[in-house]
Amino acid sequence: MEISNEERAHILVQALPYIQKFAGKTVVVKYGGNAMISPELKSAVMSDIVLMRLVGVNVVLVHGGGPEISEMLKKTGKESKFINGMRVTDKETMDIVQMVLAGKVNKSLVQSLSRHNGKAMGLCGLDGNMLMAGKLAAADDLGYVGEIREVNERIINDAISDGYVPIISTIAGGYDGNVYNINADVAAAHIAAKLGAYKLILMTDIRGLLRDKNDENTLIPVVNVSEVPMLKKSGIISGGMIPKIDCCVEAVRRGVKRAHIIDGRIEHSILIEIFSDEGIGTMFY
Amino acid sequence: MEISNEERAHILVQALPYIQKFAGKTVVVKYGGNAMISPELKSAVMSDIVLMRLVGVNVVLVHGGGPEISEMLKKTGKESKFINGMRVTDKETMDIVQMVLAGKVNKSLVQSLSRHNGKAMGLCGLDGNMLMAGKLAAADDLGYVGEIREVNERIINDAISDGYVPIISTIAGGYDGNVYNINADVAAAHIAAKLGAYKLILMTDIRGLLRDKNDENTLIPVVNVSEVPMLKKSGIISGGMIPKIDCCVEAVRRGVKRAHIIDGRIEHSILIEIFSDEGIGTMFY
Amino acid sequence: MEISNEERAHILVQALPYIQKFAGKTVVVKYGGNAMISPELKSAVMSDIVLMRLVGVNVVLVHGGGPEISEMLKKTGKESKFINGMRVTDKETMDIVQMVLAGKVNKSLVQSLSRHNGKAMGLCGLDGNMLMAGKLAAADDLGYVGEIREVNERIINDAISDGYVPIISTIAGGYDGNVYNINADVAAAHIAAKLGAYKLILMTDIRGLLRDKNDENTLIPVVNVSEVPMLKKSGIISGGMIPKIDCCVEAVRRGVKRAHIIDGRIEHSILIEIFSDEGIGTMFY
Amino acid sequence: MEISNEERAHILVQALPYIQKFAGKTVVVKYGGNAMISPELKSAVMSDIVLMRLVGVNVVLVHGGGPEISEMLKKTGKESKFINGMRVTDKETMDIVQMVLAGKVNKSLVQSLSRHNGKAMGLCGLDGNMLMAGKLAAADDLGYVGEIREVNERIINDAISDGYVPIISTIAGGYDGNVYNINADVAAAHIAAKLGAYKLILMTDIRGLLRDKNDENTLIPVVNVSEVPMLKKSGIISGGMIPKIDCCVEAVRRGVKRAHIIDGRIEHSILIEIFSDEGIGTMFY
Amino acid sequence: MEISNEERAHILVQALPYIQKFAGKTVVVKYGGNAMISPELKSAVMSDIVLMRLVGVNVVLVHGGGPEISEMLKKTGKESKFINGMRVTDKETMDIVQMVLAGKVNKSLVQSLSRHNGKAMGLCGLDGNMLMAGKLAAADDLGYVGEIREVNERIINDAISDGYVPIISTIAGGYDGNVYNINADVAAAHIAAKLGAYKLILMTDIRGLLRDKNDENTLIPVVNVSEVPMLKKSGIISGGMIPKIDCCVEAVRRGVKRAHIIDGRIEHSILIEIFSDEGIGTMFY
Amino acid sequence: MEISNEERAHILVQALPYIQKFAGKTVVVKYGGNAMISPELKSAVMSDIVLMRLVGVNVVLVHGGGPEISEMLKKTGKESKFINGMRVTDKETMDIVQMVLAGKVNKSLVQSLSRHNGKAMGLCGLDGNMLMAGKLAAADDLGYVGEIREVNERIINDAISDGYVPIISTIAGGYDGNVYNINADVAAAHIAAKLGAYKLILMTDIRGLLRDKNDENTLIPVVNVSEVPMLKKSGIISGGMIPKIDCCVEAVRRGVKRAHIIDGRIEHSILIEIFSDEGIGTMFY
Asked: Are C145 and C86 in contact (CB under 8 A)?
């Protein structure tokens, strides 16, 4: 579509009320899925973040990296084993997880943002003791899978006030001296809560919460967290959606104004969420 | 034209390199002509300014107010007299000029910007001794028409750093205790130079410098200030364009990076100038 | 009278305890009446303000401008109409009021203070949304006569902390987009209250509150605000004094330490008030 | 003489241009002689200092204490011995000198200023290594009489910027670990020079430099430092005036704008000097 | 003993946890007794203070000076008279006390610290009105012996934040304009309490509180302040220990975390107290 | 050896002059070799760094990680290939290098320092565009082995001023969008130069520069950089020492005051270097 400069200017101006609304606020984005794999989507996400930062939004990027971990494990001849969707993580696996997340995925995101003229600082939960964890209580022994006990947000705020976009790998230090792998959605929720963020955005590969999961036209755009138990009972929230929505509920309970599940497969989905009335995906409040 | 949220986001992102380029820079806009008369254009200008400020551009608005002055003079039974396009300004006229500019036009611009959620501070050249003038040297006695001797930019910088858009009426204090009327284009050029502005933008009611003044398709988009004498000799720069272009040349000579003559009749012309490669109107460098 | 340098020094030193008492405090002065008309008195007021500022008092000047408004209305052929001492203000009149106050009176006070080496910033209630008003509730339709709903003191404090004496015209923005004329005494009281001022000083053309209004020797120097109802009942407070004293009472009720009605016809009456034990005029506490 | 409040206010206002001139400037006062002995004069000096500080002058007080030293020496049975007006200072004498200056005179000045509501900090040349000295080169062995080698003004500036009037005893630390007595006039001149003071004021018990030393009507009010050699040759500068005037010359040579010899026997002589055109005593520039 | 560089480094590292514990905390040291007389001990104390300051401890030094006072009184032919261990202080004695403490002892401590490359500021209770006192209520008239009514800690904090070690003579200003002598232990306790100090350390010439005062092996290392009355009853706390321990108790009651009585005759006793687990002397908490 | 608390205190005090000398200075430590492998040595290095930071030294830690890289390559079935001591680095190898350095070695150092109560921030050359590189010019194609073109020290200074010890992996971003491996000694030298460091310390597994490389008693403690060419010619500087010493020379040439080659196999070698006169290893100046 051919768009004239006049129309472009007009569209910029229409973004004004949204910019005014979000200036100075903190938005924590959990980045993952296709949006992290497709180069076009990745580039679009980086642009979105740089733009948000420039108009005064304090963006914090939290990332996972499942596929790269599996690939690296395969290279070293380790098998990936999962129980209830959680990776069984022995010492050797944890080493690979740490290397891939904090050394590869994190730093390549830093480099991507730099190439879009953003100022990025790549951190993990060990830096400045940001994330302290204990071993996750679970029926089966998952090894070095942890649950967050403490978020020391100081290093994140230092990074923000020095002008950087903090990009965070969700490995945490244990009180026992070990390193623990933390689910990135959960970590993003904890971080958003501790920062007093205005929004938590979880990027996924689905449209949002669907009334009928086979029909994208049945998207539920807005959910009050008090409705969640009922939606679980009725089976609308089920399967892989459960832990993600639990993160949203938890974040909102701890003071985050809005939590979102958005479709990372749509280009600029973050911007659309921020800069339109309808938003995108499902919002929990 | 129907534009989807995806397309909107895409357009926002395309503005990114321009925003990055101008963030932290100062742009002095001389506001006048139709853009100040038509309510739609006025509203668009206000939006443009608020948007620029939000993305980190330090905007300074300098305004004239010829039509309102003439109208008020008429109301009080004074006749407007012009010599070479300059108003002959006796004491009584000067009083009206001051009231209309600093009391009516200025404050109603302040109010307009406020209504667009901007933070405005209405100042004139008397505040903080911003503009000091002497009587304009001219063949005929024009009365209280002044020329700038000193720009004390301190109050403008105070306003900017406190977060306001300074809106400036171009009346100046004289060393003799009188008040002088200053041509707004000239004042804008002086202010831009003293502030070390990146851009000076003069809003007019023409497309820009035209090779054939009856054909808008002959717009000259870019002029090096060294070409101006030749363009004058050849008659391409003539009539009312001469003083405006002299302001541009003067501003560039004193260190302003770019000076522009743009068409205020086009909605969002300032944004188009700032946020596109082609810009709009004629640029002097 | 011939005064030696020794005596001068002695007098300066006697001002010391008063200077120590007021350093760092805020004093709001409503300026009006003869003190604004006579050039000698005006010059004395300007000196007083500059001196107070130099010894560390944060002075805020609020002004009216009735006579100039009437004069300008006359020039444009409009008649001044009053109901209960308040000007009936149609759209056209409001335009004149705004121009005269914010464009003429305000800026000429700025220039006067500058000539006394003061740093002045001329503001009105529209700047930085300082004064927000609604239509004054009254029996008769007075047009654009407003009452204050909100004082946003931020712009005043910015001016003070940047080293300026804020000089304020009391026109206010309406939530309906109109401009309203505000009684200057009332505005000064509201501003003093919002700033947490130490003193509110209303300059008038009378000695203060007189027990017998025909005998200046019956001045009541000090009044507790709780005595005001009784003084009204007894007729001592009557006529034009009522609204002025109501302003004083209101200011004191809202936390201003002292409110004064002083005689602007006496040269340096502000200084005398500030720098002597007896003060001048009538003090409400 | 009866002076009305109106006249008082008028006199305050007449001080305005002087206050404006000195605000933010540094004035070093060497305090000594009768002004330090008479309780009335002492009280007047304290008032002068507090007033100057309140109107923004940074006052530094440097004091001597000859009479108290002699008295204390007498009490302990030591004889005061002088060569060329300089006290012969053995170890025991130096101990007494230090005690009297830094312990008695200094701290009682601190207390006096406090009683006038001033904020004083009593320091000596040892504090913060302010004054470093070597043994004075002289024909006769004067013992612990020193000459300044280094002024570390940091502690004085710290005191000023924390809001105190620094009151300084002129004993200095030696590189050899000893303490040396420094002539207070000389120390004041060095300190004024290092601080980049605007004025150095030496309080004495004479009118100033007299053309005929027996006739106070022959006061020379202004001397250019280049005239001093000639005035010495002609005998007009002679005796005890020589070292004092040498201090003034030295201070001016090192960048102090004006150095003054004033008569401390006149009440408020400092204020008169600062706040009148004619000043008092003799000014060197 | 020959200690290798490796061993030295090792010992430094062992101090690390103590340094981390005390960094940023305030420690008030009452300095007196043999530690102030022996040149070796004095030098060790100075080193200790400079080291503590360098590792981030805010040290405040409070000193007495009994022996020097007595010596000076003797020199001037005054006799020292004591009632219950307190010096009877007439006007003349008070003068000597002030001179010796604030002029001699204080300033020579300043010089000592400077020679150890410390930055010292010598103050007394008169400076910045730090200590305000009334006459001590006592059975016998002790003259100018005072008790503290007010501690204005501002000047101490100013000195600390400007990087100085404040060294304080405990003479105080009276509301009656007199100067009062204050017991240095008591003053140190008051100052520690007002500063919210972490530790108060009283340097004495005994090991600490001994169960059997003739046997240094019976040192009681730790005492809870609630045990003090019992220890007094049992006679373990007796004689000269009573007022010192009362100071410790008072300080702890007013919020000081720990108060110590340590043996100043042991070289580096302060450092040993701060940088070892066992500490030295007796600790009250 | 049994060392008493008194002796410990004495040793602490002896460190005082060194602490005073280095307070506020920047020291860049290249960490590697045995000191990074042995848990005891590693723990000692961490203690040294925390101590230095506490006494005011700004430590920057730069690390390599050769052994871990080789081990990881082996695990993934890649062979390590070297030409002239430099690893041939294809894309896949570079990926492993980045992961191991920035993800494993770096973050485990961060964790170690945290366990010693230090505040660490793990960064690599990609963060904040700290290190920009081009392909190393070499006879053989080494793949992604880079040479530094630009050091953007901003992010390092931000980390320091926020109170962190920056720990840096020496991978760099290329202008071509690739990532390059940088020799850690070289990177440390460049960083030290750009920071204006006082000292560069290269930790190695040798004593320093030996006159006879088989005899540790022939250590050359001090070398002027101008002597280096001669020492190379004479064969004293040879083999693996050449590039290390070239780094030292380069750092000194660019303004680093001293560069050191020290023996990381000696516990607390950094502290010994900093806190003794003789130092340790070889110093270049």
From this structure: yes
Counting Cβ atoms within 10 Å, is residue B227 exposed (0-12), middle (13-18) or buried (19+)?
A: middle
Contact in structure between F262 and F281 (CB atoms under 8 Å): yes
pLDDT at E196: 97
3-state SS class at A74: helix
Using CA atoms, how far residue E5 sits from B19, B208, C274, F270, F284, in Å, is 58, 79, 71, 11, 21
To test the contact with chain B by mutation, choose from A5, A43, A266, A277 the residue with the greatest count of B C-beta atoms within 10 A, namely A5
What average pLDDT does the structure give for chain E?
93
For chains E and F, count residue pairs whose Cβ atoms are closer than 8 Å.
111
Cβ–Cβ < 8 Å for E64, E57: no
Rounded to an integer, what distance in angstroms lies between the CA atom of residue B64 and that of residue B101? 7
Packed helices D154-161 and D184-195: angle between N→C axes, nearest 10 degrees: 70
In the sheet with A120-124, reading across from the earlier edge strand, the strands are: A120-124, A165-169, A58-63, A26-31, A199-204, A258-263, A282-284, A222-223
Round to the nearest angstrom and report the end-to-end CA distance of chain A.
36
Residues C132 and B109: their CA atoms lie apart, in Å, by 16
Q: Determine the distance in angstroms separating the CA of E127 from the nearest CA of chain F, rounded to an integer.
A: 30
Nearest to A247 by CA among A170, A178, A179, A143: A170
- Chain B and chain C share a number of CB contacts under 8 A equal to 112
The per-type count for chain D, helices as H runs and strands as E runs, is 12, 14
Instruction: Inspect the structure and tell me whether chains C and A have 3 or more CB pairs less than 8 Å apart.
Output: no
**Does C contact E via 3+ CB–CB distances below 8 Å?**
no
What letter would DSSP give residue B170?
A: -
Closest-CA distance, C240 to chain D, in angstroms, reads 27
Rounded CA separation C105/C98 (Å): 10
Q: Which residues make Cβ contacts (< 8 Å) with residue E237, sequence separation at least 6?
A: E209, E228, E231, E245
Please write the tens of the pLDDT for every residue from C124-168: 999 999 999 999 988 888 999 999 999 999 999 999 999 999 999
State how far the Cα of A46 lies from the Cα of A58, in Å rounded to an integer: 14
Q: Going by C-beta distance under 8 Å and a sequence separation of 6 or more, which residues neighbour residue C217?
A: none
DSSP string, F78-130: PPP-EETTEE-B-HHHHHHHHIIIIIIIHHHHHHHHHHTT--EEEEETTGGG-
The residue in chain D having the minimum alpha-carbon distance to the alpha carbon of residue C268 is: D9
Nearest chain F CA: its distance from A189 CA (Å)? 23
d(CA F232, CA F254): 21
Q: Report d(CA A129, CA A152) in Å as an integer.
A: 6
Is the ipTM higher than 0.85? The answer is yes
For residue F225, give Cα distances in angstroms to B256, D46, E154, F199, F246.
Answer: 48, 62, 52, 14, 9
Query: Can you say how many angstroms the Cα of residue F232 is from the centroid of all Cα atoms in its chain?
Result: 23
Q: What confidence tens digit (pLDDT) does each residue in A146-179 have?
A: 999 999 999 999 999 999 999 999 999 999 999 9
The pLDDT, as a whole number, for residue B1 is 54
Q: Chain B contacts of C100, Cβ < 8 Å? A: 99, 103
Dig out the tokens for F14 from the structure. 């002896």
Q: Is F285 a residue whose pLDDT tops 70?
A: yes
In Å, how far are B120, B124, B270, D14, D56 from B191, measured between CA atoms?
Answer: 18, 12, 18, 36, 32
Pick the range with the lowest mean pLDDT from D110-114, D152-156, E135-139, E141-145: E135-139
Cβ-count burial of E34 within 10 angstroms (0-12 exposed, 13-18 middle, 19+ buried)?
Answer: middle
Interatomic CA distance for residues D65 and D104, integer angstroms: 9
CA of E248 vs chain D CAs: smallest distance (Å): 29
Q: pLDDT at position F86, please?
A: 84
Label the pairing between strands D82-83 and D86-87. Answer: antiparallel
In sequence order, which residues have a C-beta less than 8 Å from that of residue E20 and are 6 or more positions away?
A: F50, F54, F117
Residue A16 to residue B278, Cβ atoms within 8 A: no
